[in-house]
Design a protein that fits this description.
It comes from Paenibacillus ehimensis. The protein is α+β, with helices and mostly antiparallel strands. 29% of the residues lie in helices and 30% in strands. The protein folds into three domains: 91 residues, 3-Layer(aba) Sandwich (Rossmann fold), CATH 3.40.50; 153 residues, D-amino Acid Aminotransferase, Chain A, domain 1 (2-Layer Sandwich), CATH 3.30.470.20; 79 residues, no CATH class. A hairpin with a 4-residue loop joins strand 3 and strand 4. Helix 6 crosses helix 7.
């Protein structure tokens, strides 16, 4: 009696441009199942009339570009994706078959969504204007000015009022790039720097440090083979000495190692458990609040000197490269494919 041949199902990974296709495919190929075909394509390579895509595939040890029928599931890894593109895709492949429908989050919108269930973990955050900035500086002495839709720490400014009344304005580093005589002079400089881009201002946190270096705590939250949100790992990016921007970091390590260096094991484990619990609530809240089908996100925390956790931001397109130097983190790439396989059968 012949064995029943299992159907090979196609998962499409949508990326921003053709140059990214081979790089992205290499990351995920090792994690696919034998009965899964992975094809990488861009939005511009969709042929709506023929209901097909021009995609890149690894076949028999070679890179092959050809035309494929639409995949059963699409994993969106584009940072900027038109909502209409995703809607048209789902109209053809089926409802709920395209995940990560929104990869670029508006930081202020996310703050408002989280402020109800997770208010105690959020630093005070308001949209930028001169009056609000002056009030926040008076209250906290340090504030961060961030673009609402920025990423990788680009365009983030740290503002600190010194006891002398001087105001130090810096980018990436604690050392100031500009020293203002007073708050109004600093605001004039900020107006010049920010232009017409929409910014928010966030309460400065008295950060806990590791070996005199700032670190963050990033929880990667992904849906698993059962379609349920779960925390894949928790890592820390250690900033270069003298820097506050962890996006351009000195090194990446497991947060467990950092916390156990700072605290007794029991305390470190309790902090990690809190991070996992808060991150899961954040993921559920953000997906519900955006009304878009998500499959992964990351939640960035800061830890202050009173051992209090603060949610700094939530990222809709987690930077995967930071996990590569750690080793043993294959789940980062495997989970989305497991979730894609789950969607194919549900």
């Amino acid at each position: 009696m012949k064995k029943k041949r299992r159907t090979v199902r196609t998962v499409g990974i949508m990326v921003a441009n053709p140059k990214q296709r081979k790089y992205v495919l290499r990351k995920y190929l090792a994690c696919k199942t034998p009965h899964m075909r992975l094809v990488c394509f861009t939005p511009s390579e969709i042929d709506w009339k023929r209901k097909s895509i021009l995609g890149l595939q690894r076949s028999n040890g070679k890179w092959v570009q050809r035309r494929f029928p639409f995949p059963q599931v699409v994993y969106n890894r584009c940072y900027h994706t038109k909502k209409t593109t995703l809607q048209r895709l789902e109209a053809i492949i089926g409802s709920n078959k395209c995940f990560n429908q929104r990869n670029q989050f508006n930081k202020y919108e996310i703050y408002k969504q989280l402020s109800q269930p997770l208010a105690s973990y959020l630093p005070e955050t308001v949209l930028y204007d001169r009056e609000s900035a002056a009030q926040l500086l008076e209250t906290y002495k340090v504030m961060y000015v961030k673009p609402c839709c920025g990423h990788l720490g680009k365009g983030v400014y740290r503002v600190e009022v010194k006891e002398s009344g001087e105001v130090h304005l810096s980018q990436h580093h604690f050392l100031p790039e500009f020293i203002a005589a007073d708050v109004p002079q600093c605001q004039t400089k900020l107006d010049e720097l920010l232009g017409s881009t929409r910014y928010l201002i966030q309460q400065g946190i008295d950060l806990q440090q590791w070996n005199d270096q700032v670190f963050d705590i990033r929880a990667l939250v992904q849906k698993d083979e059962s379609g349920v949100w779960s925390v894949t790992n928790v890592v820390s990016r250690i900033a270069h000495k003298g820097c506050f921007n962890t996006s351009i970091c000195d090194k990446v390590c497991l947060s467990e190692d950092v916390l156990r260096h700072l605290y007794p094991q029991e305390k470190a484990d309790a902090i990690l458990q809190s991070i996992r619990d808060i991150s899961l609530r954040a993921a559920e809240t953000v997906e519900s609040g955006t009304g878009r089908h998500l499959g992964e996100l990351s939640v960035d925390f800061a830890l202050d000197n009173d051992e209090r956790l603060w949610i700094i931001e939530v990222n809709g397109k987690p930077q995967k490269d930071i996990y590569d130097e750690l080793g043993g983190q294959d789940a980062v790439y495997r989970r989305p494919l497991q979730y894609a396989a789950y969607l194919q059968t549900h």
